[in-house]
Amino acid sequence: MEFTPVLHSELLKIRSLRSLVGELCAVPVAVALFSALAGLDGGDPDFDPLFSVFFGVGFGQIAAIAFGTSAVSAGFRGGALRATLIAVPRRGRWFAAKAVAIAVPVLVVGLVTGGVGLAVGTAVLGTKADGLTVGEELRGVVGCALYLTLMALLAAGLTAVLRSGVATLSILIPFLLVVSFVIGDMSGSVADVLPDRAGQVVLHRTWDGLLGPWSGLAVTALWAGAALLAGAWSVRRRDA
Fold first, then answer.
1. Burial of 79 (0-12, 13-18, 19+ CB in 10 A)
2. Is 84:130 a contact under the CB 8 Å cutoff?
3. 171 secondary structure, DSSP code
4. pTM
5. pLDDT tens for residues 120-156?
């Protein structure tokens, strides 16, 4: 089977699962809610209006990660992968189609999320957001979409390796919510190359450290790429 019909099939699977659609819908809701809450507190001397506007991305990424995880783990339940491989014997082609089927809707939702987060965040900040330029706001919206997409792909690759959505979420969510901050406080520049910290530089108006906005996203892309390569290797080498 050619790549296009395989991709169409994977997109259809995602669209037909309510849980996956719900996880996608949760992304802009979480970002808007937590960005609004962050905008209410602008008294910090190190206040960064752009990061305050997109503060909710740190919580919205949980829904994006859950989406990437669920989209892959669903294929390992009840022998579903065996049935898929009968129609698509080339495992690499199937996994590539799965990755694209995850990336496309997350990217689209991410752009919408960035726009919603910008509108809500600037509205709550009021005059505190007046200093933001159009270029900074555009960088935040695009960066939000790319970051969420890369984190969903990172989760997808890791799920293909572990073959368990529960195991993947048990690793990634505590890492993002707890471990990354602990490492950052203890190790300084080492934390700059962690996937979440590197990618979120694009959401800051100013930054210190090893990476800038786009180089930070490039580092996150390397993490996601490595996870996808490991996932592809696992799919090719292990029994369905």
1. exposed
2. no
3. H
4. 0.92
5. 999 998 888 888 999 999 999 999 999 999 999 999 9
